[in-house]
Design brief:
By secondary structure, this protein is α/β, with parallel strands linked by helices. An 8-stranded mixed sheet has the order 3-2-1-4-5-6-7-8, sandwiched between helices. Strand 4, helix 7 and strand 5 form a beta-alpha-beta unit. Helix 4 crosses helix 9. The longest helix is centred in the last third of the chain and has 19 residues. It starts with a helix and ends in a 13-residue tail after the last strand. The relative contact order is 0.16. The structure holds zinc ion. The site of zinc ion has 10 residues, from helix 8.
Length: 255
């Protein structure tokens, strides 16, 4: 049951037959962990907080830099130098005091991720390097938590939902393989990035996150596990491909 003020706040969700009261209760009960509070993490955080996700764990080891403000929309000039996890939690507190925002200032690696997602309904990964992405993927498979992975570079974005803990579903590692476990294989620090492109990918990731959270409850249909959506900002357009489960994958198949 939602309190009266919460009903009023989420009316536009509740009147959607695809969400309804039961869907809104499911969102309020959900716990989402966000890995990476940058250009993708900012809009993901804003739209998931606005959707009334009850608990948000905010994970990033970085501090706000002046060059982030061009696309990382939750931060302002006064946040420069402040840890992103802390500034992001403060943003949520200002926005909706009923939500539980937990700041975690840590760099996600193999060791940290091992038990990190125990009470989490969904992990959304919008970080900037493959080593973290793969550590997060392995942790999600081990802890049977779905993963929504989102990435952007220049004018191309990718958003995919993974449930590698299920026998017939690929994990993120099935898609990229083992070649990228080394630190700092990629980074958008040197590449150019149109701010709105990160926003498009992030808001699409937030939409897909709600879809995964409402599987079996609302009417948004298939959670689209194992499908990768590729967003092209130049054409512009969107195409979708299916990722196959790799029977030799070291992340989900014991290969
Ligand atoms: Zn796999």
């Amino acid at each position: 049951m939602l309190a009266h003020d919460r009903l009023a706040r989420f009316t536009r969700h509740i009147v959607l037959p695809e969400i309804g009261g039961a869907g809104q209760v499911a969102l309020a009960s959900a716990h989402v962990a966000l890995v990476g509070l940058g250009g993708i993490g900012s809009p993901v955080l804003q739209y998931l907080a606005a959707a009334g996700i009850g608990t948000l764990t905010l994970i990033d080891d970085d501090a706000v830099d002046a060059s982030n403000l061009q696309r990382q929309t939750i931060y302002a000039e006064a946040d420069i130098g402040r840890p992103k996890a802390e500034a992001a939690a403060a943003w949520i507190k200002r926005f909706d005091g009923a939500l539980d925002a937990r700041a975690v200032r840590v760099r996600v690696g193999r060791d940290w991720a091992a038990r990190a997602f125990e009470s989490v309904s969904l992990v959304v990964d919008g970080c900037d390097n493959f080593a973290t992405r793969l550590a997060v993927s392995n942790a999600c498979v081990a802890q049977a938590v779905p993963l929504l992975s989102a990435a952007v570079g220049r004018f191309q974005g990718q958003v995919g939902a993974f449930a590698g803990h299920l026998a017939d579903q690929p994990c993120y590692r099935c898609y990229v393989g083992d070649a990228f476990d080394a630190e700092d294989c990629d980074s958008c620090a040197e590449d150019g990035m149109l701010g709105a492109m990160a926003g498009w990918v992030g808001t699409f990731a937030a939409l897909q996150a709600v879809r995964v959270l409402l599987r079996g409850v609302g009417g948004m249909g298939d959670p689209q596990f194992g499908k990768l959506h590729v967003l092209d900002g130049l054409a512009p357009g969107l195409r979708t491909m299916r990722i196959a489960k790799d029977p030799a994958c070291s992340g989900c198949s014991g290969g």
